[in-house]
Design brief:
This protein is an alpha/beta fold. The protein folds into three domains: 121 residues, no CATH class; 44 residues; 156 residues, 2-Layer Sandwich (Nucleotidyltransferase, domain 5), CATH 3.30.420. Helix content is 48%, strand content 9%. It has 15 helices and five strands. Helix 1 crosses helix 3 and helix 5 crosses helix 6. It is flat, with a radius of gyration of 29 Å. The relative contact order is 0.07.
Length: 395
Amino acid sequence: MKKSRFTEEQIIAILREQEAGVATAEVCRKHGVSSATFYKWKAKFGGLDVSEARRLKGLEDENGRLKRMLADAMLDNAALKDLLGKVVTPAARREAVAYLAEAFEMSERRACRVVGADRMSVRYEGTRGDDTVLRGRLNELAAERRRFGYRRLHVLLKREGHAVNRKRVQRLYREEKLAVRRRGGRKRAMGTRRPIETPMAANQRWSLDFLSDQLTDGRRFRILSVVDDCTRECLALAADTSLSGLRVARELDDIVRRRGRPTTIVSDNGTEFTSNAILAWADDMGVGWHYIAPGKPQQNGFIESFNGRLRDELLNETLFRSLPQARAVLEAWRRDYNEERPHSKLGWMTPWAYANAILEIPGRSVAQPASSALRPLETAIDDGSDHDRTLASDG
């Protein structure tokens, strides 16, 4: 959650409600904040009026800015004094930048600014090796497969044992002028997109999507959420600053080891879900991967609804100081969501209890009652085992 959700005036107004006699729990519930956040506000703004809070905020910001400017200037001055001799040649500047980055823990951008070097010159590497053999084979394959682009040609080269990455093949492909001419486009019928049927068994269909949030220091991180569309269980909440297709495949492997393989997975057309790693994973596992139409998140309504609950119930109310803390909080919330939180679409059963009920009736799904009345949760069997059980899959 961002720091600027509440202004100083709003925070002081909230504190005054509590000072007027309203219970702290009631104030926190009314404004959607945790008690820990409330007491942090009270320690910082207690006894201040709006004008004093504004003045305090302005002084803190100005003081912090001046301190950073002074520290940066002193560090740059010390770094320049530590460099011996003139730094004029590109090689000398490259060495000076590397020294400053190691000795003073400077970023490359800042070290280049102190030395007066161009970042492109610092990053320059020697001439490339001989690509004659690779160029020849690339031309041969392009002649055999005239409509193949560099990506498919790269796959063919790797099959033959060439240790080459995609970017190198792309560079040679362009230098050899092998680009495939695009044919005239024609309108293609989209076809009818019938609604996805509601799954009637566990592991019949999973839904995947990403969320984004922010730490208190301003760094952003992403969250991969995985939901079983039948039982509504949250199978994973993986948080990291970067989640690639390979990372998504590893998370899916962990889930499959715990509870079995799904029949179908639904996601949007994000680059992580359309990557070669995901395509290879789905092919190896024999899992059907369904992509929704671009700009149609309602076609993946199960995960969109879950993400809304996650953001409303956790992300908007929590200050994440670090990534490990965010992972721990997300895992605790996931377990609570699966084991404790009643779900309206499951007849107010928890996802964990609903999944247990499905296991007790092989080959059938539990009818979801139309009534919204609360039902007892005695069907949830608490035997001390992990709530992520291995479920029988169709495949």
